[in-house]
Amino acid sequence: MSKISAPRSNREFIEACVKAGDAVRIKQEVDWENEAGAIVRRACELGAAAPFMEKIKDYPGFSYFGAPLSTYRRMAISLGMDPASTLPEIGKEYLARTNGEPIAPVTIDRKDAPCKENILLGADVDLCKLPVPLVHDGDGGRYVGTWHAVVTKHPVRGDVNWGMYRQMMFDGRTMSGAVFPFSDLGKQLSEYYLPRGLSCPFATAIGLSPLAAMAACAPSPIPEPELVGMLSGEPARLVKCETNDLEVPADAEIIIEGEICPDYKVEEGPFGEYTGYRTSPRDFRVTFRVNCITYRNNATMTISNMGVPQDEGQLLRSFSLGLELEKLLRSQGIPVTGVYMHPRSTHHMMIVGVKPAYTGIAQQIAQLAFGSKLGPWFHMVMVVDDQTDIYNWDEVYHAFCTRCHPENGIHIYRNTTGTPLYPFATPHERKYSIGSKVLFDCLWPVDWDKTNDVPTLVSFKNVYPKDIQERVLANWTTYGYPEVK
Amino acid sequence: MNQWEVFVMDMAELAEGKDIEISIRTLNPGVQKYTYKHVRAQVSSSLDKFPDKLQVRMGRGQLSAAKFSIKVIEEIRRLPPQYS
Q1: What would the pLDDT profile of A335-368 be if each residue is shown by its tens digit?
Q2: Nearest to A55 by CA among A145, A120, A131, A129
Q3: A279 CA to chain B: closest CA distance, Å?
Q4: Three-state secondary-structure class, residue B80
């Protein structure tokens, strides 16, 4: 029996957040057009409680839950941990759970699946019946999928993929979305469906349990349904779709079933993204034709409003990218002390702490990082030594500014894979996902004499005898200073 | 009168005096707001020339000061029949 008491559904998660003071119930009517988005955005920028908007204009019976995982407190709640847990504690727990044995999902009967309480088929299918929000003023459309999972399955290998690919409502039965060529779904489409001219069945699940959303967002090699089981300590409950053979989370609030068209594209975007910009203009993108909608009674639509830090796109993606890279580096025997992406880097900079055991270790780390499937999502790797606290930006920044040799410490990798969302990239680079990467090697060279060549760090912790440090710490308040927490 | 909006990268896409194909979204109030149609239409910078109004946004969502009137001649159905 599981010892983990994580919320099993979006509803349980909302209740847990309200109880902890990390969500607020908004009783007054909120407009789906900009107002809901603006509330979520402001909550993100203030690091405030998540808004649970219980009354939506034009959509009686529906509600919104915004910014579900935009703070580490809510991430801790999602994992069933103390909300006050520190980031290193949350990371340690994530690694412990995801390094175990995969837990296979179970398929339940459709009569037991809450997501089947309402079923729209045929002429009844209409996305306008859902409270799809206009998240940012000026977006190319109302976005159905901002915090969700697009479920697909490789028809030959059987690989199941849950991915968070943004989806815009084009009309009542059509969505378009950004699916990058290097993503799991992008590879599946280009490898199998598009060359054969076959449509790809999909199901979009909205209002997932927070751990299912975490799995959909994580770049883990473990199939997402099993990853959810590992994170929650018990099998994920799935149910078969109405119109295709895919299986979806049974407790999700809304399921949209359909097919990705190989021979039909409509425009998508622009959309405010996790980089903090609307970078890519509208273009003809992957198009999803909707055949069925199912939803729970009083369904809650989840909204992530991406923009300047910090929202769950940055926070959760930084978290999972960093920890997945840590796993990769450890699997290669590299003596890392930890890996951290600060969410404010909009998951563009990977900070790696390592024991500088041999020459070239920083380059080895960068090459593994950039060469892995994680690589397209960031373009900077900074490597610091094992004495630097990777979670302390003051220490990392000091190491960067003082140890990274302008000629020898900065290594540029050209013509790599990039994302169309890089704000700094040229329009040509964005169009073809052309990237470039940089390594900041902040390690003292191994061939420097440690006594005579390596500068001595002048800090309280490093230059004073232990007895003096202890005396100063013991007398600190006696000297007249307030207590340091 | 209907209100529409279009996204363009270049205002030259809205050539006056000829039929053009564009995707426009409705700004009429209601649950259909912001849904798209692909249409053949004529546009004019003279706001009185055609019955409907057209607002313009640039590629990254910036609202243009330019306003147009528009006549939707027909909706173009590009959707292959197997998806209907």
Answers
A1: 999 999 999 999 999 999 999 999 999 999 999 9
A2: A131
A3: 7
A4: coil
Q: Give the CA angle between residues A189, A184, A194 to the nearest 5°.
A: 5
Domain chopping of chain B, boundaries? 3-77
B3-8/B20-26 β-pairing: antiparallel
Mutate which of A127, A135, A142, A171 to disrupt the B interface (most B C-beta within 10 Å)?
A171
| The CATH number of domain A332-441 is 3.40.1670.10 | yes
Question: Can you state the angle between helices A312-331 and A361-371, rounded to 10 degrees?
Answer: 120
| Domain ranges (residues) in chain A | 10-303, 332-441
* Closest Cα in chain B, distance from residue A171 (Å): 5
What is the CATH number assigned to the segment(s) A10-303?
A: 2.30.110.10
Angle at A216 between CA A210 and CA A222, to 5 degrees: 115
Distance of residue A220 Cα from the nearest chain B Cα, in angstroms: 32
Please write the tens of the pLDDT for every residue from B69-82: 999 999 998 899 99
pLDDT value for A280: 85
Token pair 């420097």 in the structure block, residue? A448
Which residues of B lie closer than 8 Å to A, measured between beta carbons?
A: 7, 9, 23, 25, 30-38, 57, 59-63, 78-80, 82-83
User: Torsion angle, CA of A242/A244/A246/A247, rounded to 10 degrees?
Assistant: 10
Asked if residue A10 lies in contact with residue A300, where contact means CB atoms within 8 angstroms, the answer is yes
Spell out the residues 6+ positions from residue A453 whose beta carbon is closer than 8 angstroms to its own: A444
Report the complex ipTM: 0.97
